[in-house]
Amino acid sequence: MEFFITALAAFSVLSLCLHFLQGLRRRFKALTLLGIEEGEDDREKTRSRHGLLSSARRAITLLGEAFPEKAGGGAADLLEESGSAWTPSFLRGLRLALTLACVVLALPLGSACLLLCPLLSAAAYHAPVLVLKRQARRRREELANDLPEMVDLMAVLCFAGEGLHAALEHALRACGHPSTRAAMQRIVERIKLGESVSEALRRAASHPGSEMRRFCRTLLRADEGGAPIADILEELAVEFRNARRERERVRAARISIYILFPLVFMILPSFMLLTVGGIILGNAM
Predict the structure, then answer these.
(1) Which domains are assigned to the chain?
(2) What is the pLDDT of residues 172-209, one digit of tens each?
(3) How many angstroms separate the Cα of 83 from the Cα of each of 105, 141, 212?
(4) Model's pTM, two decimal places?
(5) Shortest CA distance to 164 belongs to which of 108, 233, 263?
(6) What count of Cα atoms within 13 Å lies in the side-chain half-sphere of residue 72?
(7) What is d(CA 222, CA 211) in angstroms, rounded to the nearest whole number?
(8) I want to staple 195 with a disulfide (CB 3.0 to 4.6 A). Which of 139, 179, 199, 203 is the partner?
């Protein structure tokens, strides 16, 4: 019983923290979109909050530097793929800090701590990596959803007589998601630094997103082979749009399965307690 009480209390505190963080993030985005500046009191609160966060970040980074990760761990690639501003040292320190926090929180459980500490420590140690992987997957999905319109725009520009470099620059301004804009900006910046279009596309062909890899490789083959780029872009846009429609259909089909989880684990037990539980208590009395 003590375990369930502790677990529910920890889950409640975590839910409240996430709720307040999301509320602050939505408020900041709304003020930014509306162009409203914060008041003096809000600025003071923001400065004090940033000061506390900076101190905590510095302490976590020092902890990660004290216990460096082995070379070839893939932390830098994961951070780049997820678009996070964390450093490998901060990620390492955050994983260690969460592990220590879970061990300290599990100490009041007594003898149950011996069984729960390894499980909680493993879960806390791998939680930041799971969050980064989820962010990377979300960025790939945003990129896949944004590519059809971007490729359509490039096809229209190429049909109008623009070159591939100019079409890439115009498509960069029309990107709807930050992940797509970052991927296209890398290509355009390499071209501006003196690389050829083929070399820039060849470097971008190793992108983690499958749609971006196909986009770069298709343009690379068309540029090297002298094929009409406008027609290829038009066909590629149709293919990307069909793939996006299929992904949305699969996602919509999963919703009916996800609805079963709250029905089975929340609504049905409550109904059984209210009906069968009342009958059992009535007979017992």
Answers:
(1) 140-255 (1.20.81)
(2) 887 777 778 888 888 888 888 888 888 888 888 888 88
(3) 31, 13, 16
(4) 0.68
(5) 233
(6) 0
(7) 16
(8) 199
